[in-house]
UniProtKB/TrEMBL annotation:
TM region positions: 511-537, 568-586, 624-648, 688-705, 720-738
Keywords from the named record: Membrane, Signal, Transmembrane, Transmembrane helix
Protein name per UniProt: Calcineurin-like phosphoesterase domain ApaH type
Domain (Calcineurin-like phosphoesterase) ranges: 61-278
Originating species: Arabidopsis suecica
One Pfam family, short name: Ig_TMM62
Domain annotation TMEM62 C-terminal: ranges: 513-721
Residues making up the signal peptide according to the UniProt record: 1-41
GO MF annotation, one: hydrolase activity
Span of domain TMEM62 Ig-like: 361-490
Length: 744
């Protein structure tokens, strides 16, 4: 009987345990469903995807990553991404994760052959699955874009080598278009994010795959997506666009329209991108302002980070609107710098912080959301609202910041410094209090402190500086970077370095033909003008005439006329210049494992589309400038200069020999003897000047050889495929060297 009682008791305990386990599983399922519902959002009646941000504030934040370059030759990039990004996203808990291109590297070990590698894409898919799992985020909030490296050698979207359409998150989530949108909504505002893929519709191998190529259809679709909430929402809408290519590396459409024109039309808050990495500088940012000039009106340069005229006085008359504007923010790369960006929109104010996981771990992250950095974030619209008293006072009445930390935060202090006397004076120090409920599940906490913002009005945009100090429960201090601010909405001027200017301030697609034709016309003039002087004006310029009548014009014309007296060289260069303009430079394989060759001219590559008979003429314009301009400017022009110097050296040496040997009538002329003594060092039998020219020729040969070797590796070519490109300049230079060696 006792055993039967014991069995009954054991059975009842087992049933009770099973019920508890079942109840626990049910709770976990409900929790997972609730979390999924929190991030997955909904589709409205118009097919627009909307995510509801439940931060309890008019505040959202997103994460941007760019230029991952996962490579079979550099496995550490993917390993670090898996180990760092998953836990970081779990801490940050963003509303969206934007990965703006160059997901894989697509380069050989020597970095010369550029075509897609499926192993890298398999690694990308595996790593992203692990990151999504470790972050605890819904996969649907991840948006990855195609970069130029993800398009190397892809003949058509959906082809067998288009691995982005197979392994990317966008492809797996069914986002097949080149424009994708998502709206994150708070109780006070809508935040519209529009991603754009402007890579070539026919992807060439590198290096002639460098620019973004928006089509007219893409620009029309972008215009439509950016206006989807116009006149349909009672809430204000903040608009952000994200892509891979900076506008300085984006071509115009067939109808000469640009992304900039569309962005200005909708006055988006910011366009965030990648592509340039961090090697060119830290200030790869650019403020675009409507000043009556668009990219389609030959806007070739912007000398400073802000356009001149962007700080004009606001017009506060009834119905007057501020000028259209937007910020362009390029971010660093994961490839070498392990960079990540957190971007926040707080009551319409857009701010960001860039993180560097290479140099230090990020235990505590501070993102001040107001006031904004007057160097990189302030806008004319904010100034207009402030000067015209249209601003929402509640968005100005407190200093605000988001703090992300694994540890409990015990104190947050805001400090404001006055830099006007020439050194930092602390003028405000106040503890910040936490807003909202318990956010320990995400590690993100919102802090705020009221202040009298009108006390900080000043005509100088960088007089006052903000810094926030955070102390965690372990006593560790973390300081935010000091940043200037201007309550008035004024902007601090930041000058680009030379490297920053040449990649952000130059519209390279528009500069290609001006640079090319300026160089070609100059070369033609070099050969034609002295020939015309001889034939038409019957004037002969010689060394003797230059000695008698010194001057830069006489010197140049004498040297060029001597060059014209070498028919092989003159006709050789003239024929070569015509060849470069009108004929193919070389033929090569521009697609991955296609086996088909095509040819390149200064107008682009001529390729045949997949599955059709028609030819796509001039694909890759202006991308071919990375081959055309360096060859013309750094090979052809220097070779002409070296040839001219060799010819001049020969004539001067001949004159020197005749002078010292007494073969001229004026042998005893004292002036000639003095000139002979002055020239003896450079033009004696040792001919040091000629030897220096031979060294320059060797350097030129080496430069040209490296270019030819890189092209042969990139497009699987040999000498047969580019004889004119590879042989003409070296042969002409060699001919002149031999011709000028012996002096009669």
């Amino acid at each position: 009987m006792e055993s039967i009682g014991d069995d009954d008791e054991l059975s009842s305990k087992t049933v009770s345990l099973r019920r508890r386990i079942s109840f626990t599983i049910l709770l976990l399922l409900l929790l997972l469903i609730s979390l999924s519902t929190k991030v997955s959002g909904s589709i409205d009646e118009s097919g627009r995807r909307v995510i509801e941000a439940r931060t309890g504030q008019d505040l959202i934040w997103v994460v941007q990553l760019s230029d991952l370059h996962f490579s079979v030759h550099h496995p550490e990039r993917a390993i670090d991404f898996k180990n760092i990004v998953g836990p970081a996203l779990s801490l940050i808990n963003p509303s969206l994760v934007l990965i703006t291109g160059d997901l894989t590297d697509g380069k050989s070990k020597d970095m010369l052959t550029m075509k897609l590698n499926e192993d890298e894409w398999l690694e990308y898919e595996s790593v992203m699955q692990d990151v999504v799992k470790r972050s605890g985020l819904n996969k649907s909030i991840f948006y990855d874009l195609r970069g130029n490296h993800d398009n190397f050698g892809v003949p058509a979207v959906g082809s067998s080598v288009d691995f982005f359409s197979k392994y990317s998150i966008n492809a797996q989530m069914g986002r097949k278009g080149n424009v994708n949108t998502i709206t994150v909504e708070t109780s006070e505002r809508k935040h519209l994010f529009v991603g754009i893929d402007t890579t070539m519709h026919i992807g060439l191998r590198g290096p002639t795959n460098l620019f973004g190529h928006p089509t007219d259809e893409l620009l029309s679709s972008l215009d439509s997506h950016l206006s989807q909430w116009d006149n349909q929402s009672a809430k204000p809408v903040a608009k952000i666009s994200f892509g891979h290519f900076p506008l300085s590396f984006t071509a115009l459409s067939h109808s000469q329209k640009s992304l900039k024109d569309v962005f200005l039309k909708h006055s988006i808050s910011a366009y965030v991108c990648g592509h340039l990495h961090s090697k060119f500088g830290k200030n790869l940012k650019r403020h675009h302002h409507s000043g009556g000039i668009s990219l389609s009106d030959n806007d070739l340069f912007q000398l400073n980070m802000r356009q001149s005229g962007a700080e004009s006085t606001s017009n506060c008359s009834f119905g007057a609107l501020p000028a259209a504007e937007f910020w362009e923010w390029e971010m660093g790369d994961w490839r070498k710098n392990r960079a990540m960006r957190i971007m926040a929109i707080d009551r319409g104010h857009v701010s960001y912080v860039d993180l560097d996981f290479k140099s230090k771990s990020q235990r505590t992250i501070i993102l001040p959301t107001f006031p904004l950095d007057s160097r990189f974030m302030s806008t004319s619209f904010a100034r207009h609202k402030y000067e015209c008293q249209h601003m929402i006072s509640s968005s100005y009445d407190a200093i605000r910041a988001i703090v992300f930390s694994h540890s409990l935060i015990v104190e947050v202090v805001a400090r404001v410094y006055d830099s006007s006397p020439g050194f930092d004076n602390l003028v405000m120090e106040a503890p910040m209090r936490k807003l909202g409920g318990d956010s320990s599940s995400s590690g993100a906490t919102f802090f705020s402190v009221p202040w009298n913002y009108r006390a900080f009005e000043d005509p100088l945009p960088d007089r006052f500086w903000l810094q926030i100090e955070v102390t965690d429960i372990k006593g560790r201090l973390t300081l935010s970077e000091m940043r200037p601010f201007s309550i008035n909405g004024l902007s601090s001027k930041v000058s680009w370095t030379w490297n920053e200017f040449r990649v952000m301030g130059c519209q390279w697609a528009a500069l290609y033909y001006p640079i090319l034709w300026a160089a070609m016309y100059s070369l033609f003039l070099v050969f034609l003008i002295p020939k015309c002087i001889i034939i038409v004006f019957k004037k002969q310029y010689t060394l003797k005439k230059f000695i008698a009548k010194k001057g830069p014009i006489t010197l140049v014309v004498w040297i060029l006329q001597d060059l014209c007296r070498m028919p092989v060289v003159w006709f050789g260069y003239m024929a070569y210049l015509l060849y470069l303009i009108f004929f193919p430079w070389f033929s090569g394989e521009v697609f991955t494992d296609s086996g088909n060759r095509t040819y390149m001219t200064i107008m682009g590559w001529v390729v045949t589309s997949s599955g059709a008979d028609r030819k796509h003429v001039y694909i890759g314009q202006p991308d071919v400038m990375v081959l055309v301009i360096p060859h013309v400017v750094f090979v052809v022009i220097p070779s002409v200069l070296v040839v001219c110097c060799l010819v001049a050296e020969r004539e001067i040496y001949k004159d020197h020999i005749r002078t010292v040997s007494g073969k001229k009538e004026d042998d005893h002329d004292r002036g000639r003897k003095k000139r002979s003594q002055r020239r003896s060092l450079l033009f004696s039998n040792r001919r040091l000047f000629r030897k220096s020219l031979l060294v320059a020729s060797l350097a030129l040969y080496w430069k040209h050889f490296k270019n030819c070797w890189a092209l042969a590796r990139a497009y699987e070519m040999n000498e047969v495929h580019f004889p004119g490109y590879s042989l003409v300049v070296p042969l002409l230079l060699l001919y002149v060297i031999c011709k000028t060696h012996k002096v009669p």
